[in-house]
Amino acid sequence: MTSLLEVQDLRVHFPARRRGWRPPAVVRAVDGVSLRVEAGETVGVVGESGCGKTTLARAVLRLIPPTSGRVLLDGEDLGTRSGKELRRCRRRLQMIFQHPLAALDPRMTVAQILGEALDLHRLALGRPDRQQRLAELLEVVGLDVAHAARYPHELSGGQRQRIGIARALAVEPALVVCDEPVSALDVSVQAQIVNLLADLQERRRLSYLFIAHDLAVVEHLSRRILVMYLGRVVEAGPAHALVSTPRHPYTQALVAAVPVFRAQARSPSPLHGEPPSPLHPPSGCPFHPRCPLAKRRCRTEAPALRGIGTEREVACHVVAG
Question: What's the rounded Cα separation, in Å, for the pair 134 and 128?
Answer without folding.
Answer: 10
